[in-house]
Design brief:
alpha/beta; 4-stranded mixed sheet; 23% strand
């Protein structure tokens, strides 16, 4: 097994095509095919399955590639640190549920580095994909929340991907709505008061469930519900339909604007808490960028 073979396998998994991978790597397709065959023989598993549309990663291949990406990223960091090559960029990625504070911390982190020397990525995405991205080393850090309701399901997924959860802050539930909403000036808002307004939540896709929802108290029944896929649409629905969502109450006005408010939610039947934190590979040592990102997260969260 060589670093070059790992690089080839990772590139094929990203392009999903031997032809596209060979073009990207500037090697002939027969050379690429031979290298992958030798790699598969040396490790005793099939990494890829050929189809009429290209190649697909096998179940064994998914596990192997998760380790391969982690190893190759460490190699790139070493090469960047000790090599004279100027065209190698250090990669840093964050995958997160739809939290404006996570984006704010990312912005402040990026400001501290020369973007020309880095390949930065932030992915606001579905809960399962946040976990998967960190599990396969697509992102170094993921931002999610855990509660009494979802901790068993989320915990099982974290174990499957060999991930660790690090708590940042615990929050009660808040109702997030626009300032023109009839309930916006309330000191508290109850579930009964919300029954005539649409409850907004983020779409979680085919692998989604109430356990993977981004909103606290997702297990409750809401008579009117609408799903959205991004924060901008969610905010538009709050204004256009007097919709609301249940959240942590930690809102970044700089990014979301000042036209929205978070009002404490009161539910006599539940006192569920959101434990917001970040996930990493188990026993993983954070990169310099990763450490600064966590510092920026804590700085913002603890100054609220």
């Amino acid at each position: 097994m060589t670093l070059q073979q790992l690089h080839y396998a990772i590139t094929i998994s990203e392009t999903k095509s031997m032809n596209k991978a060979s073009e990207k790597l500037f090697v002939s397709q027969p050379t690429l095919t031979k290298a992958i065959k030798e790699l598969e023989q040396s490790i005793g598993i099939s990494i890829f399955h050929r189809t009429g549309k290209g190649v697909e990663v096998t179940n064994d291949g998914e596990e192997f590639l998760a380790h391969a990406r982690q190893i190759y990223q460490q190699y790139e960091l070493l090469e960047q640190k000790y090599s004279s090559k100027e065209n190698i960029k250090i990669k840093f990625g964050v995958s997160t549920q739809h939290y404006s504070f996570a984006v704010k911390a990312f912005v402040e982190t990026v400001k501290c580095f020369d973007i020309a020397q880095y390949e930065f990525a932030i992915r606001e995405t579905k809960t399962y994909e946040v976990i998967e991205d960190v599990g396969i080393s697509r992102s170094e850090i993921g931002i999610i929340f855990i509660s009494d309701f979802n901790k068993q399901v989320v915990g099982k997924l974290l174990d499957e991907f060999a991930l660790a959860f690090h708590s940042l802050v615990e929050c009660n539930a808040y109702v997030y709505l626009w300032k023109g909403h009839p309930l916006a000036k309330n000191d508290i808002i109850t579930l009964e008061e919300l029954k005539n307004y649409p409850c907004l939540s983020f779409e979680q896709g085919i692998k989604g469930s109430a356990y993977l929802a981004e909103e606290i108290l997702s297990e409750k029944e809401y008579p009117r519900t609408i799903k959205a896929s991004d924060r901008a649409t969610m905010l538009n629905l709050m204004v256009g339909l007097n919709g609301y969502t249940l959240c942590s109450g930690i809102i970044c006005e700089e990014l979301n604007g000042s036209d929205y408010v978070a009002v404490p939610f009161e539910d006599t039947a539940s006192s569920e808490i959101m434990n917001i934190g970040y996930i990493t590979k188990k026993n993983n040592i954070l990169s310099e960028v990763g450490r600064l990102y966590i510092e920026e997260l804590k700085k913002y969260l603890f100054n609220q």
